[in-house]
């Protein structure tokens, strides 16, 4: 056989064994390297690290017993051994492994489980006499547990060696915690760690969109027992259902996110990690879990599907017919911006009760003054005049004081309407109990993303999420498909209830241009409100069109001064944005 033929045969053999995607991923990793692979190598624990962690574990004031629950059914031998070994290799020794075999028919399963149980007294195995599926098997493992906390581990997945130590460390730091979860990644067919999932802090509205918590999940055992364990009939989404029921019982401070990759989810043909087409029934069960959760917490909402995203749920909150929204628009001249903004607002926006408060900051153009005079003749449009030097915060506060709606929508004059239901989506969320500011997806006229929320980050203390990204590329990520808890949203379009806005004192007028939206949202966050971003309300933003960019020395100095003020005011929270996921790249 010629060399070319041998190479072709070898490639076909690799494709049959590992799949085309696996081969391409390996080639890419070899040719140019993979940022996460480099990160994994750079952060791999050494034997010295192992010994230090063991010493720290032995010195912990509180050493909770953690029961690891593993439901097993016909697991391939190599995967089962890897799963069990990952528990035996834990650097934190105060654990027990509770295994429930769900009447496996493969003889190797019992042989392995018996051998491991004989090897370590901390391992106990329950053999079920009939197959009851994952919820029933998990409950059988739970019945054998005696630990203060239970950790959920699938029979073909593995734990990082420091996983239970990190859990115990968090419990010592926050003794009141009842539910903990960590970041995770996947193991491909070659056993390489790929696709890290960095998660936000406690995000109850995101949890209604999809099960972002997933693995590693650890819950206080008495809470799981009070909830009745996993519900039979919820197989495929039994973990999402259990988390929703648990979160209903807990204040946010009893839920803790561990920003470490502690769980490795194995990708194989029968795993949901291989793709959503594998277990579409699980998506239907997850949707049912969310619907029943909404009923339990007395939230009137409907759930819509998201195209090509079976595991994502769009929870639509209705707006009462009598609910009034006051749209507050600061403006100065620029009829070419204001008129399209108002046309879209007044003729293309589907909302039951709408009033517009235009705050004119010293317009001089005759055509603008005539246009504003004509607008003022409309019963639902009111024009306020303020000739003071530009102060966005003061203009917004002036409009809010004059508004009559129970909802306030602060809108830039360079925004144009892209869809009729945008305000319904924002208002429905803003009217939910405990919700503060809500912001939409904003895109530039050329389609690029302008705003997907705001995160706290140096050097300016805050930055737009997704700014400048290609929309089609971003659509491949979950972030552009779900309602998300965020620390802040932009004041270019921000909806908040009048009551919440008044409670925190409105916009801080010491921030006349920049960061006033971030400051408002941080005040709402500090008062216990959840700020949200939704992709299901979309608008077009002609960014900087009215005032221009902050690219002169005077404007840069002013922006730096405002950033300094924000950093000083919120010094304790800016470095610790709870909704900014960790980055796992070299």
UniProtKB/TrEMBL annotation:
Location of the Glycosyltransferase 2-like domain: 67-176, 326-452
Organism: Candidatus Chloroploca mongolica
Organism domain of life: Bacteria
Protein name, per record: Glycosyltransferase family 2 protein
PANTHER family (alphabetical): RHAMNOSYLTRANSFERASE WBBL
Pfam families with a match to the protein in the record: Glycos_transf_2
């Amino acid at each position: 056989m010629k060399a070319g033929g041998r190479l072709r045969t070898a490639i076909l053999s690799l494709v049959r064994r590992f799949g085309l995607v696996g081969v391409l991923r390996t080639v890419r990793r070899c040719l140019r390297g993979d940022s996460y692979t480099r990160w994994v190598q750079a952060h791999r624990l050494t034997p010295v690290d192992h010994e230090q962690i063991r010493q720290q574990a032995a010195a912990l004031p509180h050493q909770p017993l953690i029961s690891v629950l593993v439901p097993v059914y016909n697991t391939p031998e190599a995967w089962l051994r890897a799963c069990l070994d990952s528990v035996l290799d834990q650097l934190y020794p105060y654990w027990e492994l509770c295994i429930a075999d769900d009447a496996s028919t493969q003889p190797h399963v019992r042989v392995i489980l018996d051998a491991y149980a004989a090897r370590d007294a901390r391992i106990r195995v329950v053999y079920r006499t009939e197959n009851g599926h994952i919820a029933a098997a998990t409950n059988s493992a739970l019945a054998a547990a005696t630990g203060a906390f239970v950790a959920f581990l699938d029979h073909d997945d593995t734990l990082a060696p420091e996983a239970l130590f990190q859990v115990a460390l968090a419990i010592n730091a926050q003794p009141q915690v009842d539910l903990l979860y960590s970041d995770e990644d996947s193991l491909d067919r070659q056993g390489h760690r790929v696709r890290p999932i960095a998660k936000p802090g406690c995000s109850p509205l995101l949890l209604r969109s999809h099960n972002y918590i997933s693995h590693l999940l650890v819950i206080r055992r008495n809470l799981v027992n009070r909830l009745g364990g996993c519900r039979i009939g919820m197989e495929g989404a039994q973990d999402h259902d259990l988390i929703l029921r648990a979160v209903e019982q807990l204040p946010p401070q009893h839920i803790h996110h561990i920003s470490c990759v502690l769980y490795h989810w194995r990708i194989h043909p029968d795993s949901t990690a291989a793709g959503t087409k594998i277990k579409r029934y699980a998506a239907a069960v997850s949707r049912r879990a969310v619907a029943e959760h909404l009923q339990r917490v007395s939230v009137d909402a409907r759930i819509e599907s998201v195209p090509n995203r079976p595991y994502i749920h769009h929870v639509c909150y209705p707006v009462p017919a009598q609910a009034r929204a006051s749209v507050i628009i600061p403006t100065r001249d620029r009829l070419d911006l204001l008129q399209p903004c108002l046309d879209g607002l007044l003729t293309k926006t589907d909302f039951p009760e709408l009033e517009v408060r235009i705050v004119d900051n010293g317009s001089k153009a005759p055509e603008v003054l005539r246009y504003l005079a004509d607008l003022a003749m409309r019963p639902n449009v009111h024009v306020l005049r303020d000739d003071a030097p530009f102060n966005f915060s003061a203009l917004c506060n002036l409009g809010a004081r004059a508004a009559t709606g129970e909802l306030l929508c602060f809108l830039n004059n360079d925004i144009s309407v892209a869809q009729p239901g945008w305000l319904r989506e924002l208002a429905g969320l803003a009217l939910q109990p405990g919700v503060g500011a809500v912001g939409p997806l904003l895109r530039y006229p050329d389609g690029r993303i302008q705003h997907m929320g705001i995160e706290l980050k140096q050097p300016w203390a805050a930055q737009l999420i997704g700014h400048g990204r290609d929309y089609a590329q971003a659509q491949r990520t979950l972030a552009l498909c779900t309602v998300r808890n965020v620390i802040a949203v932009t004041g270019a379009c921000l909806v908040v209830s009048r009551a919440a806005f008044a409670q925190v004192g409105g916009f801080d007028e010491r921030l006349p241009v920049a960061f006033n939206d971030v400051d408002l949202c941080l005040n709402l966050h500090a008062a216990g409100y959840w700020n949200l971003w939704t992709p299901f309300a979309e608008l077009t933003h002609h960014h900087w069109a009215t005032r221009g960019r902050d690219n002169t020395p005077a404007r840069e100095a002013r922006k730096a001064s405002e950033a300094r003020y924000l950093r000083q005011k919120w010094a304790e929270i800016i470095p610790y944005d709870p909704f900014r996921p960790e980055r796992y790249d070299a």
